[in-house]
Amino acid sequence: MTSAAHPYVDDIQGERDGWYELLALIRPLTPEECVEPGYYRDPDWTVRDVVAHLGTWLAEAEVQFERLNVGSYEGHDVDIDALNATFLAAMEDQPWEVAWVQANAGRTRMLETWWELPEPTDEAAWWIRKAAADHYQEHLARLREWSAELIARRATPPDGS
User: Fold this and answer.
1) Which of 66, 52, 81, 74 lies closest to 114, judged by CA?
2) Which of 51, 58, 137, 156 supports an S-S bond with 106, CB 3.0-4.6 Å?
3) How far apart are CA 130 and CA 125, in angstroms?
4) What is the C-alpha separation between 148 and 25, in angstroms, rounded?
5) Cβ atoms within 10 A of the Cβ of 71, count?
6) Is 121 helix (H, G, I), strand (E, B) or coil?
7) Full-model pTM
8) CB contact burial 104-120 (16+ within 10 A = b; e otherwise)
9) Orientation angle between helical segments 9-26 and 96-115, nearest 10 degrees
10) Residue 101's CB: how many other CB atoms inside 10 A?
11) Which helix (H) or strand (E) is 26 found in, with range?
């Protein structure tokens, strides 16, 4: 539970709301559906891939919040495309369960260090936008569509009859 006095109380609530929506879309899926290509095409992404993508950004935000907290932060001059490629490659062959646990662990640690931020800064705000609610929103619309499509396939036999 967040304190009303925390400098990021609204952002933390927004992150929580986005995460819970993400959970609501993923929970009904089977592990097999979570590794079905089609979330994105070219390159093919699965639910596992988007969860791993979000989880790695949450983990990176945790590292950056920790640096902000201890005074060793060097700025957010990062190549987002290069980081995305690195993160995707690191999680590429992991099973669904590993991606899921990693995302949850990344989120937990990110929230812990976010909670420790003593005051709002532009740098913290950048990482909050990149890793939390705003980032979830970039993916939720497609996840809604893809999750619904995967669930709808259950009602249709493979032969289409």
Assistant:
1) 66
2) 58
3) 9
4) 8
5) 6
6) coil
7) 0.90
8) eebbebbbebbeebeee
9) 170
10) 13
11) helix 9-26
Q: Tell me, what DSSP letter sits at residue 159?
A: T
26-44 pLDDT, tens digit each: 999 999 999 999 999 988 9
> For residue 67, how many C-alpha atoms fall within 13 Å in the half-sphere facing its CB?
14
Total Cβ atoms within 10 A of residue 8: 19
Instruction: Note the pLDDT of residue 1.
Output: 47
**CB distance 137 to 21 below 8 Å:** no
Mean pLDDT (10-residue bins), the chain, 161 residues: 74 96 98 96 93 96 96 88 89 93 97 92 94 96 98 81 60
3-state secondary structure of 40: strand
The tokens for 155 are 């009602």
pLDDT number for residue 3: 65
**Which 3 state secondary structure label does DSSP give 45?**
strand
